[in-house]
Structure prediction request, 261 residues.
Amino acid sequence: MAICLVSLAMPFPALLRRSPLAGVVVALAASTVSAVPALPPAGAASLFQTAELNPDNFVLVAAPIGDGTRAQLNIYEQINSRRPCFAVAEGRPARVEPLLATFDFTGICGRYLDANGYSVRIGGSDLAPAYRLSVVRVNDDNLLLAVPTRSGVGPEMVVARTLGPGTDYLRLVLEPGWQLMRRAYNGRNLGHVYFYRDTWPGAPADVAGSGGSTVGDAVPAPETTAPGASAPGPTGQSGPVPLDVQLGSDALLMGPGGQGL
Prediction:
């Protein structure tokens, strides 16, 4: 008994060094620490996937707010060919007529007006919580900017531009390297679109001259014709492939009572 009392009176580290259970205690402590999950970094792999879409069925619009001194992003989609949803005039910048505002476009047109309907994605990272999209009038142009919502996320990026000044409904032309893609979940297409790039602007994988620009870069405006340059007619070419929308926000975006026009 005296020996036992002396052992209990010894400091705990000494007990661990002398006890045959020391290895077990240390192992349990290590396993407990390693079991704590690390917080995912900003831009971690997304729950959602991407799916291809037909860009000819979409038009990106800098839509005026109030007296036109400010603008917001609208996206219009031609779902089928029953009636044209928009018309795009010639010119630079190109004026857009939102025809879907003149009839009940349910089941014919899609309309995406806010972060419920669109977001930014770089490769496998869905940046919806970390970036917002904003139309800004800069000198003789209107820029669609991807703006970080907190520091350390990434750079401010130019996603599209109207290629000229104006305060009307104007077509936004995507910068090189950017494209529209559909958000998908478990193989189902959703009522949400991505402004998508394979890599960050300026990353090594970017081919020189083909990447998008960050604010302040002297990148010339693209000369190519933008998607949606001509409005699809009721008897024109084949319309868009119908989407199996299950988890998106189309109930809000495609109803006749939507806002933004």
Notes: The longest strand covers residues 188-197. Residues 22-34 form the longest helix (13 residues).
